[in-house]
Specification:
Shape: extended
Radius of gyration: 33 Å
Number of helices: 21
Strand content: 5-15%
Distance between the termini: 36 Å
Structural class: alpha+beta
Largest sheet: 5 strands, antiparallel
Number of strands: 15
Helix content: 55-70%
C-alpha cells in the first residue's frame, strides 16, 4: 500500500490503531510505528485478561464488517495459520445493527430498476437477518411464491476496498518488520482474502453456486439449497425461495430422527467433496436449517470449494490413511500433491502427523474428529513447505463444521460410518472396469497422437540442421564457486595494479619537487601515498575478515 493511499484513509487508519491498542496490541503497533508515531497519540483502554487470539477476534468484531468477513475467510487457511487461531476466528459474529429500509431500498432500485412494491405483491420491510454484507427480508411474488430477498448494504464496496487497502498495508508491515511472522506469509493471505471477499460482494456467484448444487444433488429428499429466482438476481440483490425451518440448535427431535438427519447432512457433504468435487465451504450451524419435513437446507453459498478428480482421489487416500493411522502414507500423499521444497523434513512430519492423529482421530480413546485432525495436518504440511491447494483448506473447515452440526443433533455421531460407503463407491470409480477402460483409451489416444506427430518432429529437426539453424544450449552446473574465485582474483589483481600505479606515480611526483608542499614534500605525492596505504589496508582487512574480495 502506497503512503498516499494510507494518508487518504488516515481517519479509518486511526480508528483501526485505536481498536488494536484497546485490545492490547500496543506493543505490536510500536514495532510498526506508522506515520510519525500515530498510535502513541491514542490512549488505549485497559485490555481484559484474555488470550492473544481472543483479543484479536474481539478487535476484528469491533473494526466492522470488512474485518469480520476477512477474519472468517482467514479461518479457511489452516495450512498457514495456527489451528488455535483458526478455532477462534470461527467464532466471529457478523450480526450488525440493521440499516433503515429507506437506505436499503435504493440498492434494490439501482440494480433492478423497479421498487420492491413493483416487484412483489407483499414485502416486509423489517429485516429478518442483518449481517456484515447484507440484510434479508421476506416477500411474496406475484405468482404467490414466498421468497427471501437478500440486499447488499449501500456503499459497501467503497468501504471494503478502503479497509482491504489498510489491511494489506498492515500485513505488509508485519511481514517485513517482525521476523517471527514471516513464515505465515501474511501478505499472500490478505491478497487471497481480498480476492474472496470481492467475489462475495457479487451475489451472482452465490446464485450460481446454489443452482449448481441443486443440479448435482442426488438426494433432494434429504438435503437441498433454496431455489433461486433468476430474473430478480443481480450483483447486489439475491432473491430465493423462502425456507421455513429452525437451526440445528433449536431443533427438538426424537433421537432416531436427529441421528437420521445428522447422517444425511454429513453424507451429503462427503458426497459433495469426494464424488461431485463441488461443496459448501462453510456449513456451520447458522447456515443449516432443519425443515418441518425432516430435510436439511444449506444456506449462504457465497463460498464454495472445487476439487479436481486427482485431488478427490488423493483426498480419499488421505481419509483412508488417517483411519489406518498411517502417518507415513499421509506424508507421502501430501508430498506428491504439494511438491515440497528442500527444507521439508519428512521424518519430522511423520512424527507430527502421528501425534495429531492420536490426539484428534483416535478411535481407541473415543476421540474421532476428522475436521480438527485435517486442520492440524494442513498446518503441519504448510509449516514444512508443502503448500496444498486452497480448496483442501476449505474442505477441512467444511468437514469440521458439518461434524459440529451433526454432533449437535446426535452427540454419538461418527463421520467414519457415513464416509465408508462413499469411499467404497469412489474406489470403484477409480479401479472398476469403466475406469480401466477410460484410462486405457486415454493412454492409447496419447500414444497414437505422439506416434502421429513423431515423424513431423524428426523432419523439423533435419530441416533445421540442413539450414544451419540448430542451436544446442549447455548449462554447466556446480561452477559457481569457480566463477566466484576467478572474480575475486581479478578484483584483487585490479586493485593491486591500481595501488602499484599510485605508489609509482606518487614517487615520481615526490622526486620532481612539484609544489605545493606538505611536511616538506610535494602534497600530491603525499596524498597518493595515503590513498595507496588506505587501499592496501582495506585489501588486507577484507582478506582477513571475509577470506575473499568481490
Amino acid at each position: 500500500m502506497k503512503p498516499l493511499t494510507f494518508l487518504s484513509n488516515a481517519a479509518r487508519a486511526k480508528d483501526i490503531f485505536a481498536v488494536l491498542a484497546k485490545h492490547g496490541f500496543a506493543n505490536l503497533l510500536a514495532q510498526l510505528d506508522p506515520q510519525e508515531g500515530l498510535w502513541k497519540r491514542i490512549i488505549p483502554q485497559p485490555a481484559e485478561r484474555r488470550t492473544l487470539w481472543e483479543r484479536l477476534r474481539l478487535a476484528l468484531e469491533e473494526l466492522g464488517p470488512t474485518f469480520v468477513k476477512a477474519g472468517q475467510l482467514m479461518s479457511m487457511r489452516p495450512d498457514v495459520l495456527p489451528h488455535s487461531l483458526i478455532y477462534e476466528l470461527r467464532k466471529l459474529q457478523n450480526a450488525v445493527s440493521p440499516l433503515p429500509f429507506a437506505e436499503m431500498s435504493t440498492v434494490f432500485v439501482e440494480d433492478l430498476g423497479v421498487t420492491p412494491s413493483e416487484a412483489f405483491t407483499a414485502f416486509d420491510d423489517t429485516p429478518i437477518a442483518s449481517a456484515s454484507l447484507a440484510q434479508v427480508y421476506f416477500a411474496t411474488l406475484p405468482d404467490g411464491r414466498e421468497v427471501a430477498v437478500k440486499i447488499q448494504r449501500p456503499n459497501l464496496a467503497k468501504t471494503v476496498h478502503a479497509d482491504l487497502d489498510l489491511l494489506a498495508w498492515f500485513a505488509g508491515q508485519l511481514h517485513h518488520r517482525i521476523e517471527g511472522l514471516q513464515p505465515y506469509d501474511l501478505p499472500s493471505v490478505v491478497a487471497e482474502v481480498r480476492e474472496n471477499l470481492l467475489r462475495e460482494l457479487d451475489f451472482r456467484h452465490e446464485a450460481r453456486n446454489q443452482r449448481y448444487f441443486n443440479a448435482l444433488n442426488p438426494h433432494p429428499d434429504r438435503v437441498f439449497a433454496p431455489e433461486v429466482i433468476d430474473e430478480l438476481c443481480c450483483q447486489r440483490v439475491l432473491v430465493m425461495q423462502r425456507i421455513t425451518g429452525v437451526t440445528v440448535g433449536e431443533a427438538r427431535l426424537a433421537p432416531a430422527e436427529a441421528g437420521r438427519i445428522a447422517a444425511n447432512g454429513a453424507a451429503s457433504l462427503i458426497h459433495q467433496v469426494l464424488i461431485a468435487g463441488f461443496f459448501h465451504a462453510d456449513p456451520h450451524a447458522g447456515n443449516v436449517l432443519v425443515t418441518p419435513d425432516g430435510r436439511l437446507c444449506f444456506l449462504d453459498w457465497g463460498m464454495a470449494g472445487n476439487l479436481t478428480r486427482r485431488l478427490r482421489f488423493a483426498l480419499a487416500d488421505l481419509f483412508t490413511a488417517a483411519v489406518q493411522q498411517d502417518a507415513e502414507r499421509i506424508v507421502q500423499i501430501a508430498a506428491d500433491l504439494g511438491s515440497p521444497g528442500g527444507r521439508a523434513d519428512l521424518r519430522a512430519m511423520e512424527r507430527d502427523v502421528t501425534l495429531a492423529l492420536r490426539e484428534d482421530f483416535n478411535g481407541a480413546i473415543g476421540r474421532v474428529q476428522l475436521g480438527r485432525a485435517m486442520l492440524k495436518l494442513l498446518f503441519i504440511f504448510g509449516q514444512n513447505g508443502i503448500n496444498i491447494t486452497r480448496d483442501y483448506s476449505l474442505m477441512a473447515k467444511a468437514v469440521l463444521s458439518i461434524e459440529e452440526v451433526a454432533r449437535t443433533l446426535d452427540p454419538r455421531f461418527d463421520l467414519r460410518a457415513e464416509a465408508r460407503p462413499i469411499l467404497v463407491q469412489l474406489q470403484k470409480d477409480r479401479t472398476g472396469p469403466r475406469a480401466l477402460l477410460r484410462e486405457s483409451r486415454s493412454m492409447l489416444r496419447s500414444l497414437f497422437t505422439g506416434a502421429r506427430e513423431l515423424p513431423t518432429g524428426i523432419f523439423r529437426i533435419i530441416r533445421r540442421i540442413e539450414h544451419d539453424d540448430l542451436t544446442i544450449k549447455f548449462q554447466h552446473q556446480g561452477l559457481e564457486q569457480l566463477d566466484d574465485a576467478i572474480s575475486a582474483a581479478s578484483n584483487r589483481l585490479t586493485l593491486g595494479v591500481i595501488i602499484g600505479a599510485l605508489i609509482i606515480g606518487s614517487s615520481l611526483i615526490v622526486t620532481t619537487g612539484i609544489r605545493p608542499y606538505l611536511f616538506g614534500y610535494p602534497a600530491l605525492g603525499i596524498v597518493g601515498y595515503l590513498i595507496s596505504a588506505l587501499l592496501g589496508l582495506y585489501v588486507v582487512w577484507d582478506i582477513v575478515r571475509f577470506g575473499r574480495h568481490k
